[in-house]
Write a structure and sequence with these properties.
By secondary structure, the chain is mainly beta. It contains 6 helices and 17 strands. The N and C termini lie far apart (68 Å). It folds into 2 domains: 3-183, 2-Layer Sandwich (Alpha-Beta Plaits), CATH 3.30.70; 188-268, Immunoglobulin-like (Sandwich), CATH 2.60.40.10. The strands form 6 sheets. Strands 10, 11, 14 and 17 form a 4-stranded mixed β-sheet that branches. Strands 13-12-15-16 form a 4-stranded antiparallel β-sheet, with no helix packed on it. The structure holds iron/sulfur cluster (SF4) (3 copies). The site of one iron/sulfur cluster (SF4) has 14 residues, from helix 1 and helix 5. Residues 68-71, 74-76, 93, 110, 112, 114-115, 126, 176 line the site of one iron/sulfur cluster (SF4).
Length: 272
């Protein structure tokens, strides 16, 4: 049966336990024929990436743990010679540590950058899905077992179907068809703070209307004068900020995308 990983970004605290557990399992331990030892430095078969969005004081952070995607249509397999990369019946993609020696093209072929070259052994290496543990009775890979928030799950695709539906994969445009599914990856945000400069007070209840490509999003400034538009797609937006008794402020061409969310800062409304 085919295994998958499901990673819920909303549950990930960035504690790095998964990253450390992977290191503990593989650094200095020879799990041939699954994998040669991972070097102490230079490789992260599990790597927790920090993503910071916005600017002070409107900042949001999330974490994306990255491992091999054990792709259904794996470019690393296509690039390997002599069957040096193969897929097991359970779907895990393994680099054979003996056959793969000298085949750096395996690392170059991975569109996700998760294959590292062990310079000492002249060997491409990556996450094995901890197949050596699974084959000896373990239910979970080390990284999944070490996660204190259940942000990382591993199991049968059929049993995790409800969680996979609505999830996404990294860079689907590669066509590699990853078997690591991510839930709740946040989109971009646009935020700001509305205030009255004469009274030096925030303006609770200001209406904010955001538009792009024929779509409209609405938000209302809270008791701190803050408004947030969360989970936006990449795009170019126009914003109108309105409150009874004040002149409307308009902002055109606000851009999100390429990792960029936008804090518009303090927005002064002029009283009528
Ligand atoms: S993520 Fe890269 S190394 Fe892993 S299976 Fe896909 S192509 Fe191969
Ligand atoms: S499945 Fe095993 S090898 Fe892969 S990232 Fe997790 S701990 Fe590391
Ligand atoms: S162990 Fe779990 S919560 Fe901690 S960084 Fe890894 S996935 Fe996130």
């Amino acid at each position: 049966m085919a295994k998958v990983f499901v990673i819920d970004v909303a549950k990930c605290t960035g504690c790095h336990n998964c990253q450390l557990a992977c290191k503990d399992e593989h650094c200095g331990n020879d799990w041939t024929p699954y994998a040669a030892p991972q070097p102490m430095t230079g490789q992260f078969w599990c790597r927790v990436e920090e993503h910071v969005r916005g600017s002070i004081p409107k900042v949001k952070i999330h974490y994306i743990p990255k491992i091999c995607n054990h792709c259904d249509n794996a470019p690393c397999m296509a690039a390997a010679q002599d069957g040096a990369v193969y897929r097991r019946e359970d779907g895990l993609v393994i680099i054979d540590p003996e056959k793969a020696a000298g085949q750096r093209r395996i690392a170059e072929a991975c569109p996700y950058g998760v294959v590292y070259v062990n310079e000492k052994l002249d060997l491409p290496q990556k996450c094995t899905g901890c197949a050596h543990l699974l084959d000896h009775g373990a239910a979970l890979p080390r990284c999944v077992d070490a996660c204190p928030t259940d942000a990382m799950l591993f199991g049968e695709e059929a049993e995790l179907r409800d969680l996979i539906d609505g999830a996404t994969v990294l860079a689907p445009e590669t066509g590699a068809r990853p078997r690591v599914h991510y839930r709740n990856v946040p989109g971009f945000f646009i935020g700001g703070t509305v205030y009255d400069p004469d009274k030096e007070e925030v303006l609770e209840g200001a209406s904010c209307r955001l538009q792009s490509g024929g779509k409209t999003w609405l938000a209302t400034a809270d008791e701190f004068g803050d408004f947030w538009f969360l989970d936006l797609p990449a795009g170019v937006f126009d914003l109108a900020v309105d409150r009874k008794g004040y002149r409307t402020r308009a902002f055109a061409g606000i851009e999100t995308g390429a990792g960029k969310s936008v804090n518009l800062g303090d927005i002064a409304l002029e009283s009528l």
